[in-house]
Amino acid sequence: MPIIKRPPSPHYPSDDREPSFSNGRQPPRGPEPPRDERPGRGAPRRRSIGASIALGFFGLIATLCVVGALIVGYALVVMEPQLPSLDALTNYQPKVPLRIYTADHVLIGEFGEERRQLVRFQDIPDIQKKAVLAIEDYRFYEHGGVDFVGILRAGMADLMHGGASQGASTITMQVARNFFLSSEKTYTRKIYEMLLAYKIERALTKDQILELYMNQIYLGQRAYGFSAAARVYFGKDLKDITLAQAAMLAGLPKAPSAYNPIVNPHRAKIRQEYILKRMLDLGYITQAQYDEAIKEPLQTKTAGNEYSVHAEYVAEMVRQMMYAQYKDETYTRGLTVTTTIDSADQNAAYAAVRKGVMDYERRHGYRGPEGFVQLPADGDDRDQAIEDALTDHPDNGDLVSAVVTEANPKTVTAQLLDGTAVTVTGDGLRFAAGALSPRASQAQRIRPGSIVRLMADEKGNWQITQLPQVQGALVSLTPQDGAIRALIGGFDFNQNKFNHITQAWRQPGSSFKPFIYSASLEKGLGPATIINDAPLYFPPSTPGGDAWEPKDDDQPDGPMPMRLALQKSKNLVSIRILSYIGTKYAQDYVTQRFGFDADKTPPYLPMALGAGLVTPLQSAGAYSVFANGGYRINPYLIAEVDDVHGQPILRAQPLVAGRNAPQTLTPRNAYVMNSLLHSVATAGTGAGTNVLHRDDLQGKTGTTNDAKDGWFAGYQRTLVAVAWMGYDQPKSLGSREFGAQLALPIWVEYMQRALRGVPQEEPAMPEGVTTINGELYFADMTPGNGFVASIGLDSANLAGAASDASGATGNMGPGGMTPSVTTTEKQQIMDLFESNKP
Fold first, then answer.
1. pLDDT grade, residue 7 (50/70/90)?
2. Mean pLDDT across the stretch 751-762?
3. Which residues pair with 218 in a beta bridge?
4. Strands 530-533 and 788-791, how do they pair?
5. Which residue pairs, CB below 8 angstroms and at least 24 apart, start in 390-395?
6. Is position 510 annotated as part of the catalytic site?
7. What are phi and psi of 500, to 5 degrees?
8. Average pLDDT, the chain
9. N or C: at which end does the chain have fewer Cβ atoms within 10 angstroms?
10. Would residue 183 show up in a list of annotated catalytic residues for this protein?
11. Confidence (pTM)
12. Phi, psi of 710, rounded to the nearest 5 degrees
């Protein structure tokens, strides 16, 4: 332990000699008193007042020295052996939360009790180090762990103020307290703190101690360390902060709640200015830097914009997967997960889903205000009533809540949570015009006190809108390896945490038809096969039973090529195709080659119209088989997991098309289906994709029974995306709503951004495919050579018996499916026929 020596001083001589006089001579001696009058003999000699004071002073000093020596001895003999081991410092293992990033390293989620992000000393900005030293311990690199100059200064201040007003803890002492001691203010704890400080200084370098301090100190908002605080308060990495922000962060250790720039911006600003002045006085910054920092406006991160990318559903999926593997350690061991998500694609998907859902809301009218509050007269009570009301109706992204203060058919004035008054006029009132009419019902009428939703358009003009009840979702992935590029599980995670991409099992409707068509290609059918779009007839399944002749709402178009049938999404044609190839064969085909669940894809005729159950993610994986040339991949989200030191502990090993993924579809089948789906996307029900002005898009719309689900599944060779819209509790989206109006616009909006800069690419024709009269055929299934020329044209075989070029017919398809169905199946098909549209 270093020994602190007091420097020589004329007021406190360093030897025991008497103090000398100014002339340097000894004073003259008087006559020697009689022996019996000398001190100790006879009458006592009287001391002078000065001698008594001096004697008392030296006695006090001696007593203090003895007491000090006893304390030091006690500390060395009794307390020092009880000091804890420094393993917590030398093997620093803080509780570091789980962090989740996009593939391009944008933070999208953080889970853990303590927000903490370890940063190495050399990566801490110099301005942050100087700001901390200026206010906490400017002599840090000069003292040995305990700053006696600081202690003396604090002691004098305490005496002057009549109590403890200043602390004298060095940064090293604060490290000792934070790691090993309680915050109880006692002399015993202070002694332990000082002893630990010396022990720490012997074990670690100054830079190591400062690094520990800047990573460990609590700075409010569950943030531990300056790196985490920079993210929490300013939404940026520590390396990117300004001088003004560094000074504000440096003011937090003293009292995180009192100087919190979000909660107490005024007090935080005062302390920031004080720290900047200290930095200037110490020569850490120049006058110009000081002037610029003082003028910098305070801009903190507000609630709702914690992350720059909306990927809440993705983050929650990762959290669940990590917890399944690591349990409670998930939140403390500092795992870093890098996902496959592309931040730009994710933002584009978020915007596309929001726009698609809000467009649907505008088509279906205003439902009325969200609530009502009785407004007091103008004043503080009125503002408080509005604040209380809006607290229960939090903002939802760009949909902000407001309380109407004035309303008439031409103008609505409303107040936001922060007290801002906004005015809505003109086109901004059009959506809610009926609610401003005097004839509107009390529940729907907009009047003073109504709680409404507002949204600003691109020009900053306000318009009345509403929170949607319908849900939308979108997922995209790379078909070559299944890496998920974007995933939006619903309109808003905070409003509804149910992930519709992975958890919603819904009927796919007509978006399932391509898989039935693919199966039929292996049974001899092709794009040129003529299939009758005419009413179906099923003879009685039992003697004396009734015949069954379901009809489609659409006018039957009669015989047509299979390409045109898929292009128009003809239901009767799909039933004939499935009847021809056999339901059991079709079930095995779609489950084994595309990954659909057998128990959710029952082998009966409604399967042709998408009566089974799929998730959007499952559908995206299935369409990837078409996009990548016939390989079945597994969608995946986590690319890599690293430990707290940045070392990888897990890397994804995806199935890659053409490398290690199983080939479940022949290249020729994938090529022909690609051609058929291109026709759908350019000239059929998916022609809305033409606004993208690309010639390499494929896709299929889908609408389920009674328009309860709207779908569009489509792809370009490098990207597959599936969009969906529906209600959580399935109900009709509207008699005039179909997949082409519901989901296709979401898909187009997303792909417009995701395919920007991606060159057009069309697949090369593989072996085994030939062209005859401009149409594609399998080379070994040409007209007159195994090709099925028509289905359902024979009056004796309307249900779908095979008929090849030679004219051979039969009364059952090659799959062994007899054209008879159960009563339940009949009703299901009828229900699907009534509303199953493109």
1. very low
2. 96
3. 224
4. parallel
5. 390/416, 390/417, 390/451, 391/417, 393/451, 394/494, 395/304
6. yes
7. -75, -15
8. 85
9. N
10. no
11. 0.80
12. -120, 135
